[in-house]
Amino acid sequence: MKSSFAFLLLVSGAVMNIEPTPEAALLYPYGLDQSDRKNPKLDDGTSKRLSLSVPFTFYSKEYRSLYVNNNGVISFDTKVKQYTPDPFPLVDGRPFVAPYWGDVDNVLGGDVFYRQTTDPALLKLITQNINQYFPSIPFTATWAFVATWDHVAYYGSTSNKGNTFQAVLTTNSNTSFVILNYKDIQWTTGVASGGDPKTGLGGTPAHAGFNNGDETNYYNIPSSRTEAVINITQTSNVNVPGRWVFQVDDFKVTGVPTEAPHAAASKSCWL
Ligand SMILES: *[C@@H]1O[C@H](CO)[C@@H](O)[C@H](O)[C@H]1NC(C)=O
Ligand SMILES: *[C@@H]1O[C@H](CO)[C@@H](O)[C@H](O)[C@H]1NC(C)=O
Predict the structure, then answer these.
(1) Model-level pTM greater than 0.85?
(2) What DSSP designation does 29 have?
(3) Which of 16, 67, 117, 197 is the most exposed place for a label (fewest CB within 10 A)?
(4) Could you tell me if the CB of 174 is within 6 A of ligand 1?
(5) Number of continuous H segments (helices) and E segments (strands) in the chain
């Protein structure tokens, strides 16, 4: 009795010393309790065309609708059902954001969620994050689109592996940003892209980046289409492991030495 009472005192003392601010979550809230919609369970499936309540500017062009494509892509203008990623720039003019372009199969596991929102609590959090990463850019978010791939399987999988990642589009109607969050990446490649059914590795690995559709302007996150993309949860351009953030109205890359050779660029972002 006595020793457990002393133990209780120790525990309560320890609790009082804990910092009141918990570590910020990498993923913004998502799921059915956030009134998210879900993509149909269909290999290479997509959302329907989603009309945006606020236009979104991407590489200087304004878009009023988008698709959330199962295979790790948010596209403007046209759906993307392609499952093996091609190198950027694409030659056929498809503008899109690729958080993790690879052969997702949500029939075998996981879900693809999305919503557009003006929820003040979420916009406040996104605004705080953007202001922290881009202190010289005046920005208060007025709209956001949140797409989340939750523990999604790969095509041909014989494992329980699942990837969890998120892409957030946000704007104040003048400046726009994309936030990519990589929470848990367990596979890189579907079987139809040369991947191994048991490991989801090998073949042509997933691609993360941006393609503006003009065959000239694009950006590849370092490690895209290499086996090292499995470690994208540890990399960042804003010093938050697993988070990559870009200004996209007039596309800019910060936090990555883009002039350096590829190897140096990917090395520095591991720090
Ligand atoms: C719009 O954004 C640009 C940079 O993207 C900035 O220079 C300008 O001040 C902004 N205008 C307003 C009204 O916020
Ligand atoms: C991923 O990172 C771990 C260490 O963090 C490393 O051992 C491994 O080789 C990396 N994998 C690839 C494919 O680069």
Answers:
(1) yes
(2) P
(3) 16
(4) yes
(5) 3, 13
> What are the pLDDT digits (tens) for 6-59?
444 444 444 444 444 455 799 999 999 999 999 999 999 999 999 999 999 999
172 lines ligand 1 (CB under 6 A): no
The amino acid that residue 106 corresponds to is N
Q: Look at residues 71, 107, 37 and name the one whose alpha carbon lies nearest to residue 187.
A: 71
User: CA torsion 161→101→130→170, rounded to 10°?
Assistant: -110
CB 235 near ligand 1, within 6 Å:
no
φ/ψ of residue 33, rounded to 5: -75, -5
- Please give the Cα distance from 241 to 90 (Å, whole number): 28
Strand partners, 97: 74, 210
Separation CA 28–CA 36 (nearest Å) = 12
pLDDT in tens, 124-135: 999 999 999 999
Q: Ligand 2 center to residue 49 CA distance, Å?
A: 38
* Residue 172 alpha carbon, nearest atom of ligand 1: 14
Considering every ligand atom, which ligand is closest to the CA of 142? 1
d(CA 184, CA 179): 16
CB distance 218 to 29 below 8 Å: no
The residue contributing the CA closest to ligand 1 atom 14 is 174
Please list, residue by residue across 32-67, b when 16 or more beta carbons sit within 10 angstroms of its beta carbon and e when fewer do.
Answer: eeeebeebeeebbbbbeebebebebbbbeeebeebb
User: How much distance in Å is there from the Cα of 127 to the middle of ligand 1?
Assistant: 15
